[in-house]
Amino acid sequence: MKRYRQFEPLLISDFEVSSWRHPEHNHNHYEIIYIKKGSGTHVINQVTIPYKDGDIFLLGPEESHYFEIDILSHFVYLKFTDLYLHQDVSNTNNYVQNLEYLIKSRETHLAGFKLSDNDRHTVARLFDMLITLKSEPLHNEELIWMQILALSHILKRNMPELKPFENRSKDMQAIFCYIHKYIYSPDQLRAPIMAGHFNITADYMGPYFKRNTGTTLREYVQNYRKTLIKQRMASGKYSLKQIAAEFGLTDESHVSKIINVL
């Protein structure tokens, strides 16, 4: 399978085509794809999803996809890497967490977002703005970032309905989404709290998770948190103190322990 590699932190493109020119492929970056107009089908991991004017898709590096176009279609692509996500984001951590929650949750990648009419109108305006800014990305860097943060907020409140994919049950998808949402709040990820949220007993929570995933709940949470922390450290934009505060950890030594021991 073809794999596209992007080295720039962010690329914005828009184009209109009547037939799709790319083979099935994956990539090393994330993509937010907006259908400005047109209709057809979007094939993601061999799952066929119809698309129409105003639809929006989010893909991660693990997804393979291509389009089958029925009616002349205008696509707008936002393609960005982890490096772009973890740029200098002073005073915007909550918004970055919205975006990170979206792009790290596979549940959001396998269906188009179902937006309300008002949100569809707002998203259309945001993409119009991004198109006008794309010709001078460095000059408009801050404005582009603001549009992406606004877009992530809208998408988060329009999460796709949780549907079973592959061997994962609807309940397990909900549990994964819960973990990804509350990864910054350790108290919410304790088995008794999670069990109460899903109306099951605390004694059942751990075995249920392991039976369906092959790993323990504790191991999954630790590994997911470790991945996010390592990405922040690799960006060079966060101090250990900032990371500890964001993830609800006691101090910098706790961050170091997560990275070096787990």
CATH topology of the largest domain: Jelly Rolls
Shape: globular
CATH homologous superfamily placement of the largest domain: Regulatory protein AraC
Cα(first) to Cα(last) distance is: 33 Å
What is the rounded Rg?
Answer: 19 Å
- Structural class, judged by helices and strands? alpha+beta
**What average pLDDT do the residues reach?**
83
Give helix % range: 40-55%
- State the total count of DSSP E strands: 7
Q: Helical segment tally?
A: 10
CATH architecture of the largest domain: Sandwich
Strand share of the residues?
Answer: 15-25%
- SSE order: EEEEEEEHHHHHHHHHH
Sheet with the most strands, sense and barrel status: 5 strands, antiparallel
Uncertain runs are 161-168
Could you name the CATH class of the largest domain?
A: Mainly Beta
Overall structural domain count: 2
SSE blueprint and pairings:
Elements: E1 2-4, E2 10-17, E3 25-27, E4 30-44, E5 47-51, E6 56-59, E7 65-80, H1 82-85, H2 93-104, H3 117-133, H4 141-156, H5 170-181, H6 191-197, H7 202-213, H8 217-235, H9 240-246, H10 252-261
Protein name: AraC family transcriptional regulator
Keywords: DNA-binding
Organism: Pedobacter panaciterrae
